[in-house]
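Handout, page 2. Input:
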Amino acid sequence: TSVRGWSPIGVESLHREYRNVFGGVGGNRNAASHLWASFILDRAATLSRQDVSMLFTGFCPVSGSIVRPSDYNRYLLRLRTANGTHTVGGYMHYCCWPCVCDTQDFIRVDTKVVQTRDGLERFTFGVIEDPCTHEYKLDERFVQPFSMRTTTLRDSAPAIQCDNGRLVGATRSEGGHVIIGMLHDPTPATSVIPSDEVRSNPRRGRVTTGPNGVQFQDELEYAPSCT
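Output:
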C-alpha cells in the first residue's frame, strides 16, 4: 500500500522515523531490516528513484542498525541471484565488517519493479528466505558471539513475527523472497575484478578506489576472516 506525505532529505530523515518503523515491536531493530525496507517501499510512489536508492544506504541490511553511509562502510560484493542462475556485483553499506560474512552465507539478490515518482523502476535487492518457513528455529537456543549470553531469536529479535508461515511486515521480491536491503549499482560480477593486491594480500579495512572513482572495501579482503 502506498503511503503519501513524506519528503526525506538525506538518510537522517529515515533515521528520524525510527519509532514509526519499530514502535510496534518495542523499538527493537535487531535483524529487522525488512521493516526499514518496507517503510521505504511503501512510500516509494512519492519518492524519486534517486531518493529510494539513497534511503537504502541508511541502514544495515544484516543487523538493522542505523548507518551513516561513507566510503569506508561501502562494501563491494558479488552475490548469487536467488534463482541461482548467475552472480551480480554491487555495493551495500554495513554497520560493521562481520556483516560481510553473513551476507555471503545468507543473502542473495532478486529484483522488484517499484512505482516511484519517476515511474516504474526495477531495483536489485538483497533478499533472504522467509525465516517463518521454519518458525520453530526461532525458539532454538544459541550463544550470542559478542555477549556470550544464551538466548533465542524470538527473544533477541522480537520484530521477527510470523503469521501462517510468513514474515509479518515484509515486502517480497519478484521471486517471493524477503527484501532486507538494496544492492547498489548492480553489474555483472564478471566485470567486478579484484586487484592483484586484494587477491594476493587481503587486508581488513583497506579502502579501494575503483575505475569509476567509487571508493569501497572489497569483500575479498575479508575472505580469511569469513571462513
